[in-house]
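Supplementary Methods S3. Complex input for the magnesium ion-bound model.
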Amino acid sequence: MIEISGLTKNFGGTPVLNRIDLSVAPGERIVVIGPSGTGKSTLLRCLNFLDRPDAGTIRLNGMTVDAAKATKAEILAVRRRTAFVFQNYALFANKTARQNITEALVTVQKRPRAEAEARADEILREIGLAEKAGSYPAALSGGQQQRVGIGRAMALDAELMLFDEPTSALDPEWVGEVLDLMRKVAQARQTMLIVTHEMQFAREIADRVIFMEGGRIVEQGPPSQIFDAPQDARTRDFLRRVG
Ligand code: ADP
Ligand code: MG
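Predicted complex, serialized as structure tokens:
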């Protein structure tokens, strides 16, 4: 359903993503782990064209995009079908929770405003924040802000949801509620690509764990294999350090 091939990105002549190949099945939950500076965020950002890949193709349910040459229309089409959850939530500070969710639907998906607002209300109930609809981000806890960030992505009904360390910026007390919401999203068989350091969560939720280092996929497999019987010395090293 989703096929990435030869995805490559350089920053200042340094390869950060080195010909990544990755197929994602419908409903599959993939967790990406690896040392910092290894290209995990860049991979997700390239899939959403927040960074422009230098080479590679992205195939999303029948649409094939030559990533380096993608037109504006193609980039918009990919953005309409992928949804990004940021580490720092990236909410509009001057918009309420409800407006933050509505805005993505109106601008990215060109939905009529009334329809977008109705969908935002539905999402606010799903994420347990109906009573905070009119609150601005500054009046919400970190956990609530990230739940809005996830709600905004959920509202897009995207084929692929991308999560870039969604709990890393949170005080420990808010991590649980955000992981709970992600579990709920996963239970709905949403296709997810998640970068996280929450290894216990990864073990529980992932259909597949990918270990990346130096812009490459070093090793991948079911959580039991990656966590309990890693084949590559680099994977073992990394897990020893974080474990
Ligand atoms: P990770 O998410 O695994 O920590 P990143 O994808 O953020 O790694 O970064 C991979 C490498 O690319 C790092 O060396 C980082 O410094 C570099 N990098 C990322 N974004 C940029 C950028 N916009 N400009 C220059 N270098 C960047
Ligand atoms: Mg990162």
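The longest helix spans residues 172-187. The radius of gyration is 18 Å.
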